[in-house]
Design a protein that fits this description.
heterodimer; A: about 375 residues; alpha+beta; two-stranded antiparallel sheet; B: about 220 residues; alpha/beta; Rossmann fold; six-stranded mixed beta sheet; 6 helices; 10 strands; about 35% helix
Chain lengths: ~375, ~220
């Protein structure tokens, strides 16, 4: 084993090392949390699409995303049901409704309504209650996340939706829209009767499940032929379209990229400045390395190793901080999702940027005159 | 065979538009096991000559030969010669503050290509030779000036470089410590047949030298 001068120099000044690692950790936390919130929001934006057990989504023409549905005749579902390869198809109503709280205040509620939720395995996470009971009266299931906005509630409580009293007969989990509006689930006929002006005889979506082994492309083409005034998507396409709407049509995508950029910038500036200052402070030592026969490459390796150590320590601390923030975010109804591949990319980016920062010192090192060792 | 030969060495520095000649036609030979002192007043060109002989600086004209081989004038060739054939002792010690005495010596051996147990063993051997066997794991900040210079001497001797160049090795030491360091230096250089060139103002260094050279205004005199 060779003497590890890089590590020895880095750890010799512990305060400086702590500052460097903190800088990297801060940048990593900034990037990971922003990325996690972004992914969390996008997850909410498409969670109902991904969880509903359908292969095909039929929307009105140019519907921008799942939350902003437009209506079209509900009878079109029969044309879909008769398409070869379609196992089943149903109408799905998605619309905003107003809920009146016990305090008298009014809030927005996202309502999903179907005839038979069970065969679409929807909602996907039921804490209490039975979706089959929704057909029996003026009932609905409400997501537990609504407690934050609507105040405490429980099964058996009544709430007024669009002027009618409805009973909460069950609770769900994870059902929240992109805008964090809580989601309620109710019977299709009931929802139509509540919003009769818009949805009388009309629906917002048709969802279809294909037979196992059915030709998806052929089924899609046939549905498009039969419903020329609608848009037809596979589940993944519709999820992507809904996701991209929020990224492209609102500032959220740009906001996320800007924060990630700023996080990277903070990291680069902190690491570059620390490594550069460290290089300047150790210039005589690097001159000695050259005088005793070391090359620029030997010194580049020292700087690169210091950058890698800073990156690994800073990333570990930053990632730990980000994961520690998860429960805190959940308390304020925000989802922090950090997919492993995003975390891996963040690590690679940290490593790359720390190494790039070290390169700023390379020029200085290349110019070190070993003769400086003779100067007093 | 001569360890070091310098033929017709001149060096001129450019200061703005003015050329300032520093060395004029230096001829110098250093044999195996020979200890030579180079004296001269400030500004006489001692350090410039030492830098050229140590393959740190290229001469304007003339050539340097180490163990019979002419030194090339590109940076990597010069670094290669420094690595293989030259040990340095500096006035300011130039130890790595974050490395222990042993690691300081071992690191220079690593640079020379010796690693692992061999490097560690060689570092411990030379530290024992300079009387620092019990201070091997001390950081430079915990060593006295004399002990630091002994570590620097050990670093120069480690790896068996045939040529040792020392720049004012006693300048930062009191006379008693300086004498001790010189004694160690002489004994080890002689014992291991190293050629030693010491640049100094200190007249006591003459006592350990086989030959004394003087340099004045860039001209070398016996």
């Amino acid at each position: 084993m060779a003497v590890d001068l890089a590590r020895k120099i880095l750890f010799h000044d512990k305060l400086r090392f702590v500052i460097t690692v903190s800088g990297v950790a801060f940048a990593v936390t900034l990037v990971l949390v922003q990325l996690g919130l972004f992914v969390g929001l996008l997850d909410s934006a498409t969670i109902t699409i991904r969880k509903l057990d359908s292969d095909i989504w039929i929307t009105s023409k140019n519907t921008p995303n799942v939350d902003f549905a437009n209506d079209f005749p509900e009878s079109l579902v029969n044309r879909v049901r008769s398409v070869p390869g379609v196992q089943r198809a149903d109408n799905l109503l998605v619309t905003f409704m107003q809920i009146t709280l016990p305090s008298g205040a009014r809030e927005g509620l996202m309502v999903y309504a179907m005839d038979d939720f069970a065969r679409w395995k929807f909602p996907w996470n039921i804490l209490s209650g039975d979706v089959a009971d929704l057909r029996r009266g003026k009932y609905f299931l409400l997501d537990e996340s609504a407690a934050g906005r609507f105040g405490k509630f429980g099964v058996g409580d009544y709430r007024e939706i669009l002027g009618q009293r409805l009973k909460i007969i069950g609770l769900t989990r994870e059902a929240r829209s992109f805008t964090t509006t809580p989601i309620a689930f109710m019977d299709y006929q009931l929802a139509q009767s509540l919003a009769y002006q818009m949805f009388s005889g009309r629906t917002a979506y048709i969802v279809a499940k294909l037979d196992p082994g059915a030709d998806t492309t052929a089924a899609l083409a046939e549905i498009r032929r039969r419903l020329p005034f609608n848009d037809v998507y596979t589940r993944d396409e519709w999820a992507a379209a809904s996701r991209n709407y929020w990224i492209d049509s609102t500032g959220i995508g740009l906001n996320m990229y800007m924060t990630v950029f700023l996080g990277c910038l903070v990291g680069v500036v902190v690491v570059a400045q620390t490594l550069y200052t460290m290089t300047m402070e150790h210039i005589r030592e690097f001159g000695t390395v050259k005088a005793i026969g070391g090359t620029n490459l030997d010194i580049y390796m020292i700087l690169a190793k210091q950058a890698v150590i800073s990156a690994v320590c800073g990333f570990s601390l930053g990632a730990a901080q980000s994961y520690a923030m998860k429960p805190l975010m959940e308390k304020v109804d925000l989802k922090l999702i950090m997919p492993p591949e995003a975390v891996a990319w963040c690590f690679a980016g940290t490593l790359f940027l720390c190494l790039a920062s070290a390169m700023i010192s390379f020029r200085k090192v290349a110019k070190i005159d070993p003769a400086l060792v003779f100067r007093t | 065979m001569a360890v070091l030969e310098a033929h017709s060495i001149t060096k001129t520095f450019q200061e703005g538009r003015q050329a300032v000649p520093v060395l004029h036609g230096i001829e110098l030979t250093l044999g195996v096991g020979e200890i030579v002192t180079l004296e001269g007043p400030s500004g006489s060109g001692k350090t410039t000559l030492l830098s050229i002989l140590g393959c740190i600086l290229t001469p304007t004209s003339g050539r340097v030969m180490i163990e019979g081989v002419a030194v090339g004038d590109n940076a990597s060739a010069m670094a290669g010669v420094r690595k293989k054939s030259i040990g340095f002792v500096f006035q300011q010690f130039n130890l790595f503050p974050s490395l222990t005495a042993r690691e300081n010596v071992e690191y220079s051996l690593n640079i020379k290509g010796l690693k692992g147990y061999e490097a560690r063993h060689e570092a411990e051997r030379v530290l024992d030779d300079v009387g620092l066997g019990d201070r091997k794991d001390f950081l430079p900040r915990d060593l006295s000036g004399g002990q630091k210079q002994r570590v620097a001497v050990a670093r120069a001797l480690a790896g068996r470089s045939p040529l040792i160049l020392a720049d004012e090795p006693t300048a930062n030491l009191d006379s008693h410590t300086g004498a001790q360091v010189l004694d160690i230096f002489r004994n080890l250089a002689k014992k291991e047949n190293r050629a030693l060139l010491i640049v100094t103002h200190d007249t006591k260094v003459r006592e350990i030298s086989d030959r004394v050279l003087r340099i004045s205004d860039g001209v070398l005199m016996d």
